[in-house]
Design brief:
Elements lengths: L1 H18 L10 H13 L7 H13 L3 H13 L7 H13 L3 H13 L7 H12 L6 E3 L2 H16 L4 H13 L8 E3 L4 H4 L2
Parallel strand pairs: 1-2
Length: 198
């Protein structure tokens, strides 16, 4: 009898929701969470809204939204509204890069090239620049992709001479097999590519 009541109750609630008679609050999309989080951070009066905004962006990042993962990484890298934490920054930026976010891929290449916040690694810089230069089918779509791929290719050539031919060949073999992980789809622009990649 209890099973019957539960089934009837669930069915009735579903029917009422379809009719608009019962309030159903769907879970907001990661994009909606991200946008709301950014709005709370930008429009906050004197520091209010920071925890809520960060929480929403983190939730979107936790749901594999590459744009939010890249943003959280930048926040930790530069200490924007959160304490600076290089390890967390690299972790989030890496997640975004693996999902096909070119801005995150360029950022990783720059980090490993400069060696400022991570140990310098020419091979890792070459790898991430090569990934960013590689046109792939990804959930992350950018309108200026040709410009970004060309810019990443120039950076790749700048670090290539630091590696032996055999090291480059090994990296290029890995790059050829690389495929992005699934992300929540989004599209947009990377503005001022040269500026972002420094």
């Amino acid at each position: 009898m209890a099973i019957f009541r539960t089934t009837v109750g669930a069915s009735l609630f579903g029917f009422l929701a379809l009719c608009g008679c019962a309030a159903v609050r769907p879970h907001p999309s990661p994009l909606a969470q991200y946008v709301r989080g950014l709005r709370l951070l930008r429009e906050r009066p004197a520091g209010s809204g920071v925890p809520a905004g960060i929480r929403l962006i983190r939730q979107a990042a936790g749901e594999n939204f590459a744009m939010a993962q890249d943003r959280i990484g930048l926040m930790y890298r530069y200490g924007l509204d959160v304490p600076a934490n290089t390890a967390r920054a690299i972790r989030w930026i890496h997640r975004a890069a693996e999902r096909g976010a070119p801005a995150a891929q360029l950022q990783l290449g720059n980090l490993y090239r400069s060696g400022r916040q991570v140990p310098q690694s020419w091979s890792r810089a070459y790898y991430w620049y090569s990934i960013a230069a590689k046109p792939v089918l990804s959930d992350v779509r950018i309108q200026n992709s040709a410009q970004v791929h060309a810019f990443a290719g120039r950076l790749r050539r700048q670090v290539a001479h630091r590696l032996s031919a055999s090291a480059r060949a090994r990296i290029e073999h890995r790059v050829a097999r690389w495929q992005p992980l699934p992300s929540v789809p989004y599209s947009g622009w990377i503005t001022n590519v040269g500026e972002r990649a420094r």
